[in-house]
Backbone:
């Protein structure tokens, strides 16, 4: 977990701890006393853990649950689930960890380790705890980050659609914060330890990817890096299908980038008049030699330049 996310989680915990203690003191009619024993970790029977009625359910594929169950069977539970103690010793509402809970049920476990929060936490803070816990998962991918942020912003009334989210994020990263919704969105991102610029570059774009790519990532069939290369060819028909098939079969992101370059160059070459093709292929050969000496950013820029050259050589 990054230092920024740890600080964000700690800040939320401090605010929640204070709220809990102040609530208790108001009931007692005495002056607030600050304590730090406001949550604990226990082993709870699975039958006592219920879905949180104040939070939307998250849909998971069976592939995701099976993969996690296999990992938990081998390594055990690495990170406890998070619950609210709704009825002391009798009922607990799940805040975070539905996949882990369902995997434990699939494995036939009787109980599971859980971080237990007291019942008198404000509903909005429960939601923030759930999002923070989710964002701090070690296996979290950009697809899940994007859906977590979109869902939180929608439930707070800050955006309606993924297009609205993109608009808000772009204004925040450029410092063009004008209305209440943008101020609240910026505050939430800061609280969660999420950079608007980093979110735009990695997670946000996945909301606009084809569903088969998103599903492949969620089921662990394709890495995010590989999916990014495939997504770059969306709308290119046969190339997209070829890249998707290669990625699904285990091709690395670098292998996919090479395949994409080759196919695009072949297509462009067919569009260049024969009288200019010899010169173009000499440049292609030279660019291939250069590629071996460049980092990924410079290789991408070289590919762009070669595409520009091909466009110039067309009729």
Residues:
């Amino acid at each position: 977990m990054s230092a920024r996310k740890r600080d964000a989680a700690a800040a939320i915990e401090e605010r929640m701890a204070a709220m809990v203690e102040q609530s208790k003191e108001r009931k007692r009619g005495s002056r607030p006393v600050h304590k730090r024993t406001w949550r604990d970790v226990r082993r709870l029977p699975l039958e006592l853990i219920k879905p949180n009625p104040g939070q939307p359910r998250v849909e998971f594929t069976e592939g995701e649950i099976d993969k996690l169950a296999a990992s938990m069977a081998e390594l055990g539970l690495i990170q406890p689930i998070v619950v609210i103690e709704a009825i002391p010793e009798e009922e607990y509402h799940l805040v975070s960890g539905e996949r882990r809970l369902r995997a434990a049920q699939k494995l036939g476990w009787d109980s599971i380790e859980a971080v237990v929060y007291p019942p008198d936490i404000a509903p909005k803070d429960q939601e923030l705890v759930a999002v923070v816990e989710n964002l701090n998962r070690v296996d979290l991918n950009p697809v899940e980050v994007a859906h977590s942020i979109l869902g939180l912003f929608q439930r707070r009334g800050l955006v309606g659609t993924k297009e609205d989210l993109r608009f808000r994020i772009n204004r925040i990263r450029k410092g063009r914060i004008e209305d209440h919704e943008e101020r609240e969105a910026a505050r939430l991102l800061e609280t969660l330890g999420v950079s608007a610029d980093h979110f735009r570059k990695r997670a946000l774009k996945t909301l606009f990817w084809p569903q088969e790519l998103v599903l492949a990532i969620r089921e662990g069939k394709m890495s995010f890096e590989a999916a990014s290369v495939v997504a770059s060819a969306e709308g290119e028909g046969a190339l997209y299908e070829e890249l998707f098939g290669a990625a699904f079969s285990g091709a690395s992101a670098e292998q996919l980038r090479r395949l994409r370059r080759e196919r695009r160059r072949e297509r462009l070459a067919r569009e260049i008049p024969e009288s200019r093709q010899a010169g173009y292929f000499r440049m292609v050969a030279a660019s291939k030699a250069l590629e071996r000496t460049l980092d990924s950013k410079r290789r991408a820029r070289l590919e762009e330049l070669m595409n520009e050259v091909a466009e110039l050589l067309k009729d």
